[in-house]
Task: inverse folding
């Protein structure tokens, strides 16, 4: 995924953003606009859209994506972006962001979100109210790359029910994800907060691959599946975090 496309997909996650170093910054491309139109009806659950899970098929042997579960946080004719949700690291989040005293007594670990921009960090937050500076993904799950959003989420007990931090993300150029789906690389199903925040990472892929594969096969038998595009996206810039 090229840097301009990254900016188009994530531009509303404005600086200051979470970063593991200071090497990443992009500006909004001249003339870039946010997608304002919204679909009047959500795509079928077996088609890609923001808030869907992508579950790697057993045939996927690329070590970056084999046995992964990815939450799509953006999907449009500009491309797609997602976070691998089942690859935790041994690194504590407090060690990744040592200047954030709010993290010092927390056990949270950093997850590998994908191979693109591994020094950039994005958050998934489960909250009963929209966190300031975050974008809705689905239901009560939000995505953000802002340092201040993380601080506020940590400081509001009783409203934030889940927090995950991801280093890097998975990205696809225009039409690339659709081609991978047509090739049979991914099973697709609706995202849910319980899987992201409550299911042990090692159990996610085994639980979902059988269920989604069966649903995908059944829907495919009813007729051709044509990937529809979700016209809503988020757009970013990578800046410096403390």
Result:
């Amino acid at each position: 995924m090229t840097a301009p496309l990254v900016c188009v997909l994530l531009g509303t996650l404005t600086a200051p953003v979470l970063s593991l170093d200071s090497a990443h910054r992009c500006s909004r491309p001249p003339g870039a606009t946010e997608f304002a139109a919204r679909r009047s009806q959500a795509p079928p659950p077996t088609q890609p859209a923001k808030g869907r899970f992508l579950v790697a098929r057993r045939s996927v042997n690329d070590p970056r994506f084999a046995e992964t579960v990815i939450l799509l946080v953006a999907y449009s004719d500009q491309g797609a972006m997602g976070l691998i949700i089942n690859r935790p690291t041994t690194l504590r989040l407090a060690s990744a962001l040592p200047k954030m005293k709010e993290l010092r007594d927390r056990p949270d670990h950093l997850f590998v979100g994908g191979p693109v921009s591994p020094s950039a960090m994005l958050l998934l937050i489960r909250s009963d109210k929209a966190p300031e500076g975050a974008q809705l993904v689905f239901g009560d799950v939000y995505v953000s790359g802002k340092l201040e959003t993380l601080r506020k989420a940590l400081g509001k007990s009783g409203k934030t029910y889940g927090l995950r931090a991801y280093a890097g993300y998975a990205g696809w150029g225009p039409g690339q994800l659709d081609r991978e789906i047509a090739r049979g690389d991914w099973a697709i199903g609706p995202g849910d907060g319980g899987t992201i925040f409550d299911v042990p990472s090692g159990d996610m892929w085994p639980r979902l691959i059988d269920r989604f594969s069966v649903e995908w096969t059944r829907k495919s038998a009813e007729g051709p599946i044509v990937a529809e595009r979700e016209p809503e996206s988020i757009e970013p810039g990578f800046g410096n975090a403390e």
Observations:
- The chain has a mean pLDDT of 77.
- The helical segments are 3-10, 93-96, 147-155, 176-183, 193-198, 201-221.
